[in-house]
Design goal:
33% of the residues lie in helices and 24% in strands. The chain has an 8-stranded mixed sheet with strand order 8-9-10-7-11-12-13-14, with helices on one face. Strands 3-2-1-4-5-6 form a 6-stranded parallel sheet, with helices on both faces. The protein has 2 domains: 135 residues, 3-Layer(aba) Sandwich (Rossmann fold); 169 residues, Dihydrodipicolinate Reductase, domain 2 (2-Layer Sandwich), CATH 3.30.360. The chain is an alpha/beta fold and 341 residues long. Belongs to the Gfo/Idh/MocA family. InterPro entries: Gfo/Idh/MocA-like_OxRdtase_N (IPR000683), Gfo/Idh/MocA_oxidoreduct (IPR051317), GFO_IDH_MocA-like_dom (IPR055170), NAD(P)-bd_dom_sf (IPR036291). It holds the Pfam family GFO_IDH_MocA. It comes from Amycolatopsis thermoflava.
Length: 341
């Protein structure tokens, strides 16, 4: 079994990593690292066979194979470099790092060490994204000219915990948070990006963005319009995709995150399946049909990772893809597109 540690037991470690590691027979969840006493108590209650440690320094002296990093973005590069230096395989939650330069340095270090380094872009395994990719690959939409993708929250009180204070230099703001998913999905569907336009809104005193709109001009001619916000009192469609044969509109988010927060676990009956009200619509005006989304499956990331560790094959997410995402975020932040100033 792959001896594994999770560093951080906030939403990332507790919701997105520990449940899937515990459910996969390829892994043993041996250590959980958190300096928060309440989270430490929760980790002991939920995973009694794991040893809970207060700091990463206590961890790296232990016998391990894999470290999963689910801490705030400003710590990602340092922790990943330390883990690689100890000869460990590494999963870094998104965003991979704060800068593309940091990401490139980690990739070089992993290559020299001969270790697997990957990034948890779990939204590649959202059911609706998997469905959209299939529709495009099957030619149902024809040539896609417009891709609209939204990830919207209603958080009028603003972000909490470390997100409330982190600036852009620390990986704060919604571009580093939700934008990382939306940009990665757009590139996966339509390839490299030639041009980037960004409009951002900042409400607080810091420089972290709350509401950002990106337009990506892909080299293949597709335009991706990406909306990310914490100010959506009423959300728009998750996907609105227009091709020269048909369009596809889908409302509602993949249900895996909410299910996990409500106590569900991978393998539960119906896990990853969307309600019928959230099914997408495919077709042209006057001639449409509903499309049942494929089940979401974040666990596939860890199944693919186990194979990569065992065989030396490709990781589930190439970290170079994550560097491409960071470059686009850097280009967006460099623009003078701030509508709040």
């Amino acid at each position: 079994m792959i001896r594994t540690a999770v560093i951080g037991f906030g939403v990332s470690g507790r919701i997105f990593h520990a449940p899937f590691l515990a459910a996969d027979e390829n892994y043993s969840l041996d250590y959980i690292v958190t300096g928060n006493p309440e989270r430490a108590a929760q980790a002991r209650a939920e995973y009694p066979h794991a040893t809970v440690l207060a700091t990463p320094d206590e961890l790296f002296a232990r016998e391990l194979d894999l470290v999963v990093i689910g801490t705030p973005p400003a710590t990602h590069a340092g922790l990943a470099a330390e883990a690689l230096g100890h000869g460990l395989h590494v999963v870094v939650d998104k965003p991979f790092a704060v800068t593309s330069e940091q990401g490139e340095a980690l990739i070089e270090q992993a290559d020299l060490a001969g270790r697997v380094l990957t990034v948890f872009q779990n939204r590649r395994w959202d059911g609706d994204f998997r469905t959209l990719r299939r529709l495009i690959d099957d030619g149902e939409l024809g040539r896609v000219h417009t891709f609209e993708s939204r990830f919207e929250w209603w958080k009028p009180q603003g972000p909490r915990d470390w997100k409330a204070h982190a600036g852009v230099a620390e990986g704060g703001g919604i571009l580093y948070d939700l934008g990382t998913h939306l940009i990665d999905q757009a590139i996966q569907l339509f390839g490299p990006v030639a041009r980037v336009h960004a409009d951002v809104l900042r409400r607080g005193a810091g420089d972290g963005d709350d509401d950002t709109f990106l337009v990506l001009a892909h080299e293949n001619g597709t335009r991706s319009r990406l909306f990310m916000t914490g100010l959506a009192a009423l959300p728009g469609p998750r996907f609105h995709v227009l091709g020269d044969r048909a369009g596809y509109t889908k409302h509602g988010l993949d249900p895996q995150e909410d299910a996990l927060k409500n106590g569900a676990r991978p393998g539960d009956d119906g896990f990853g399946h969307e309600p019928r009200d959230n099914w997408g619509t495919l077709g042209v005006r006057g001639e449409t049909r509903r499309v049942e989304p494929e089940p979401g499956d974040y666990g596939e990331f860890y199944r693919l990772l186990a194979t990569a560790i065992a065989t030396g094959g490709a990781p589930p997410v190439d970290p170079r893809d994550a560097v491409d995402v960071l470059r686009i975020i850097e280009r967006a932040h460099a623009q003078k597109g701030d509508l709040s100033r």
